[in-house]
Structure formats: structure tokens, C-alpha cells
Write a structure and sequence with these properties.
Elements: E1 3-9, H1 17-27, E2 29-37, H2 40-51, H3 55-59, H4 61-65, E3 70-77, E4 82-83, E5 86-87, H5 88-100, E6 107-109, H6 113-123, E7 131-135
Antiparallel strand pairs: 1-3, 1-6, 2-3, 2-7, 4-5
């Protein structure tokens, strides 16, 4: 059964966006791509919604990923492989993209359809986001 998921290429990973975009499109059906910008106070609040309240204290997440515009991919996995409750296609792709960007957590990806739904609601909610632009790539 098909699953909807999301990838996020945070600002500090955008230098690899074309390479990552090409790989995402080779593995998943891309429904849409958005470029999103959050003002500083919104950025902090939304990161806490995505990663939990303690993320900013323990990781210095904002500094690591950058606070500029980032890309959100809404994708469909036509042939999900689930293991331990997680989509292994998504986990493997996320780890590859993190390796491509030098390690760390510059790439975010959903592991379950439930996580994807919750995170896409945050990313695509105009009330929570300063600027959302739907992009199209040739």
C-alpha cells in the first residue's frame, strides 16, 4: 500500500539540493515541492513542534541546519518496506542524504505516514509559516 512522506532539505544543506532532488525523484513519486521561510520566533516554535520541546537546548538545531529558506518535498512511496514500524526506503534515503551533506541532521525525513502527516501540517500551514512558495522543477 502506498505511503505519503516528506523530506526537508534545511538551509545549510541546500548546496546539495539538485543532487538530492535527482535522487528523491529516482526513488519516490514527488507530489509537490515547497520553499518555506520562517521568521526567527516562528522557526523556534515550529522546530519544537517537530522535534520536541528540548531540541533547541540539547542540539543547537537552528545553528546546525540554518534559519533561512528550506525545501519541503511531499512524496509518495509506491512500494514501502516497513520494518520495526518505520519505512526503510525513507530511512535509507534520509541517511544517504545526510551523508551527502557531510553528516549531522541537515536533512529531515518522515519515518512513518503518521509522522509525515503531522509534519506536513506544520510545514504547509500558512498560519505557522511566514512564506510558502510551491516550486516546480523541470
Amino acid at each position: 500500500m502506498k505511503e505519503t512522506h516528506c523530506f526537508v532539505i534545511w538551509q545549510n544543506a541546500r548546496y546539495k539540493e539538485k543532487e538530492i532532488d535527482k535522487d528523491i525523484r529516482s526513488k519516490f513519486q514527488v507530489s509537490s515541492v515547497y520553499e518555506i521561510f520562517w521568521e526567527s520566533d516562528v522557526f523556534k516554535k515550529n522546530l519544537q513542534k517537530i522535534y520536541g520541546k528540548n531540541i533547541l537546548k540539547t542540539w543547537k538545531k537552528e545553528k546546525q541546519i540554518g534559519t533561512g529558506s528550506f525545501l519541503v518535498y511531499k512524496v509518495v512511496d509506491e512500494t514501502p518496506r516497513n520494518l520495526g514500524g518505520k519505512n526503510q526506503n525513507m530511512v535509507e534515503a534520509k541517511l544517504l542524504y545526510r551523508e551527502m551533506t557531510g553528516g549531522g541532521h541537515l536533512i529531515h525525513a518522515s519515518d512513518t505516514p503518521q509522522e509525515a502527516s503531522a509534519h506536513l501540517e506544520i510545514f504547509l500551514n500558512k498560519a505557522l509559516s511566514t512564506n510558502i512558495v510551491k516550486l516546480s522543477f523541470a
